[in-house]
Structure formats: C-alpha cells, structure tokens
TrEMBL record:
InterPro entries referenced in this protein's UniProt entry, alphabetically: Glyco_trans_20
Molecular function terms from GO: catalytic activity
BP GO annotations: trehalose biosynthetic process
Protein name per UniProt: Trehalose-6-phosphate synthase
Taxonomic lineage from the root: Eukaryota, Viridiplantae, Streptophyta, Embryophyta, Tracheophyta
Pfam families: Glyco_transf_20
Species name: Arabis nemorensis
Length: 95
C-alpha cells in the first residue's frame, strides 16, 4: 500500500511495465520536450483505473535519446506531469 499525500488516503500500487509509456515525447528544443497522450489500447484501457492506484509506468517514450544531457532533460519532463514515468532504452539495446 502507498500513502497519497494529496488526498490523505492509502492507495494500492500499480506498476505498469510496457513497451511504451502513456505519453509520447517530442523534442521542442535542445533540452526541452513536449509530451502528448499516447494512442493505444493499454493506455486507453487503464485511464479509468490508474486514478485509483499509486501508478508507476516503465517504458519507452517513442523516441531514442542520445547523450546524458538529453536523457536527463526528458526524464525531468516526464516527472513534471504528476505521474511517475521511467525512461528505458529498450529498443536501442536490442537493435
């Protein structure tokens, strides 16, 4: 169980590990990103459920990011939307 400071109640945890994050990232500058809701069945199917859980996502943002500065900037953008999103370079390590 996880404590939700905003509501003052305990919510169960939900960890979603998928090939894509619930957002798609698009570079808007050298170290800035915009995020849009990803189209897809998993994201759409879980939208109504995730509000009831302390939800954490692990996945790929839809773009390959090279260099630590770029990865750090994207990770910061992912953290700003209020959901815990973790960036992984799954496909780059496979291909």
């Amino acid at each position: 169980m996880s404590y939700d400071d905003a509501c003052g109640e305990i919510r169960p945890r939900l960890l979603v590990v998928a090939n894509r994050l619930p957002v798609s990232a698009k570079r808007t500058g050298e170290n800035s990103w915009s995020l849009e809701m990803s189209p897809g069945g998993l994201v759409s199917g879980l939208l109504g459920v995730t509000a009831q859980f302390d939800t954490k996502w692990v996945g790929w943002p839809g773009v390959d990011v090279y260099g630590e500065v770029g990865k750090e900037a994207l990770s910061e953008s992912l953290g700003e939307n209020g959901t815990d999103l973790k960036l992984i370079g799954l496909y780059r390590s496979i291909c």
